[in-house]
Amino acid sequence: MPTSTHGYTTSRKVYKEMVQSIETRKWGKLGLFMSRLCKNKPAMAGLVIVSLLVISGIAAPLIAPHSPIEHDLSSMLAGPSWDYPLGRDEMGRCILSRIIYGARISLLIGVASIGIGLAVGVPLGLVSGYYAGKADFFMQRVVDTMLAFPGLLLALVIIAVLGIGIRNVVIAVGIAIIPVYIRLVRGSILSIKEEQFVEAARSIGSSDLRIMFRHLLPNCLSPIIVQSTLHMAVAILAAAGLGFLGLGVSPPTPEWGAMLNGGRLFIRGAPHIATFPGLAIFLSIMGFNLLGDGLRDATDPRLRGRG
Amino acid sequence: MSQYIIRRLLSSLLVLLVVTILIFVMVRLIPGDPATVKLGPEATKVDLELLRRYLGLDKPATVQYFLYMGNLLRGDMGISTRSGLPVTTEIMSRLPNTLLLAATAILIAIVLGVTIGVIAGAKQSSLFDAISMPVALFGVSMPSFWLGLMLILLFSVKLGWFPSAGAGSLRHLILPALTLGVGNMAIIARMTRSSMLEVIRLDYVRTARAKGLTERRVVFVHALKNALIPVVTIVGLQAAGLLAGAVLVEIVFAWPGIGRLLVDAIFSRDYFVIQAVVLIIATGFILVNLVVDIAYAYLDPRIHYQ
Lengths: 307, 306
Hints:
The complex is a heterodimer of chains A (307) and B (306).
Chain A: H1 2-39, H2 41-58, H3 60-63, H4 95-131, H5 133-147, H6 151-162, H7 166-192, H8 196-203, H9 208-216, H10 221-244, H11 256-264, H12 272-299
Chain B: H1 2-29, H2 34-39, H3 45-55, H4 61-73, H5 87-122, H6 127-141, H7 144-158, H8 170-200, H9 203-210, H10 215-252, H11 258-267, H12 271-299
Helix pairs in contact in B: 1-12, 5-6, 5-8, 5-10, 5-12, 6-8, 7-8, 7-10, 8-10, 9-10, 10-11, 10-12, 11-12
């Protein structure tokens, strides 16, 4: 049947070609993204720092030279030595081991609190941006109210309500991050929801839920990933800040902010106690900032150097 | 324009109202109650009941909220359970210190940040640019509480130039203000630089150069004015966050401000003080944001506010 050959086979061929071109474009985009990222030296430096952080977090028991909680009051405040390269703290514990184990705590708090931010913020942002109208208005007022509290203040109040402990720090930091994700996703959705592919999906009878999660969400993944990387820095800083105020993880858990707080009182006689944990916080934050900036530049080079 | 300002004002008032409700609810979720905290575990039931009635805690929550709002409008924020003093007195004795610290910090941040940003932007790829931008990145990533301790170590312990704690003189102010300002300075410098880079390539700047103006005049008079528009927003956001950021710096330098008051209040569960300080910081944050939005509308007439 010539017509079927022409009608059916040709359209199938065209379809195959389209899929192929889309695939190439997709991989091409990823390739482009990777090459942009790899050429960005500061971003690569960030990636190295973040990788070191993750490795020391995961392999802490293998890398740490001593136990992070074993104390020895006879050699408290001892300075750096061969056995204890970063010295000992006010309880005679190994500072290097505590910093290595502390990476675990910081990463855990960062990842878990961002998980809370994503799990609550993304769906709310999707609904807010997609439906607009009253739901959006209401949601935006809630976001306005939450954003009326600077992040650290909100976290402080939540800790006051929930009490100290690692779980509560995660909840406090996570809740403080939620409004940022709502705003981000809503903004992205508003800019793409009038596009043709959404109309196409709607015209073939896709449900709102399907459109939101299958069609719209994948299109705002890159700002979400960039934001999450940058937010790891914010979460680590917030957790360390709470720890420094004595409102974070309970002792003797090796947490960088709490270690810094412990060393604060000995800044005159034994400055190494406060110096090294602070350096760890600083480097981690810088690592995530560099990587986040690099990811942003690689996804959208027009934004290079902003902010 | 005036319609925009009125609408923005009303929405800020609405947010402020919701904030008071939220703070009221959150503070009541803190475990225990003010009466038990004040009288301790030894108190008799009768005493507790009397104090609860005195503090108005025996009334339904909605009534308590309206009483709280009524008192708030009269400037009465309750009595501190820790010191026994009126919360308003406690706050008024400390708020000026925090405001002084925050204002000095933002001043340092603006003056140094804009200057560094303008020079780095105007002389892109110069040595100054190559050095100042990585340094600015350090500043962005630097935890203020660590920087504060390091400054104490260097300037108080080693060099003995500045006192490490307390308030009362200009010498006391410099280290805490610098600590609080550095992060903001770095952000402002980066923002000014990138904004400057965009503006400096525009036609009108080329025209200014072409008509023979000095480079200094081109950069500081022609380019800077337009480059500063996005910087204003950043400065506003930074300034608004400073009151909260001051909490950590006040602890490092034993600075007698409301941030330290808040942390002490959280430890001793001083409910009315927590409530008041959080409300003041949030109100400051909302007010500064409002001012920034209005300033932005004036500065950039191209933007039409819907």
